[in-house]
Amino acid sequence: MTKNYTQSEDFKEESISLYEILQDQKDEVFRSKTQFKDWTINDVLYHLHVFNNAAYLSLTDEDRFSEFMKDFYNAVKSGVTAREYEKKLSKNLSGKELISLWKDQFSKVAEAFSMADPKKRVKWAGPDMSVRSSISARHMETWSHGQEIFDQLGIDRINTDRIKNIVIIGINTFSWTFINRSLEVPEKVPMIILNSPSNKKWEWNTDNNNDSIIGDASDFCKVVTQVRNINDTNLKVEGDIAKKWMSIAQCFAGPPEDPPIKGSRYVRKI
Question: At what angle do helices 131-153 and 217-224 cross, to 10 degrees?
Fold first, then answer.
């Protein structure tokens, strides 16, 4: 079968970029708390590893995926925190042993998804989705949770045009953002004009003259993944609908989450 080196390769490259800044860190660094809900770097890696594995199961063994989700929900209902359960599923490893486990798994996931039909439907915690959407979601989550690690280590992230996958997820979840909060969905998605990391111009919905979002693609990604408050970016937002969207944008599944408070997420000065 011919490999599909698109979103699966982007996911792998994003994961490697995160691995490279962690591989030489001391164990105490992995125990440090990030600006995201006091998760440690170990916690972030537990979460990424476990749900990368869940995506792998959804692709390769639907019954085992369903069993995983049932066990996960039952554990949380019993009083075990999600972080505690994810740590258990990650063999209680930490530091360099944990990043080795995570690296082996994300490489395996990328390979499996690269060989799959991108249009195949797979199960997930929410609605079913395509293989392409599933691996794009893994890319998005790796990028977004990776941001708290870059922030914690005091590293200014250098993005590449692979973040277009995250931009597209952000745009495609415009309606979801409103539905998830039981709000009426606006008829038209705002015009979006973004500069890519390589200085290309990415445009969507250019016929909408009432609402617009203009600026850097990386800033847009930060807002829709809720790793930055809109007021901590240089995005130019015009129109009531665009302003409302950017104040509550949420491109990930789950109950409504509020964006971080202005100034609460930033690259630490080391």
Answer: 100
**260: number of Cβ within 10 Å:** 18
Position 126 scores a pLDDT of: 78
Is 256 part of a structural domain of the chain? no
Q: The domain that contains 21 carries what CATH number?
A: 1.20.120.450
Give this prediction's pTM.
0.96
The boundaries of the domain holding residue 223 are 164-248
DSSP 258: P
- The Cα 79–Cα 265 span in angstroms is 29
Report how far residue 195's alpha carbon sits from residue 218's, in angstroms, rounded to the nearest whole number.
8
pLDDT < 50 stretches in the chain: 1
Closest CA to 151 of 63, 22, 35, 10: 35
Evaluate whether residue 263 is within a structural domain.
no
Residues 185 and 118 grouped into a single domain = no
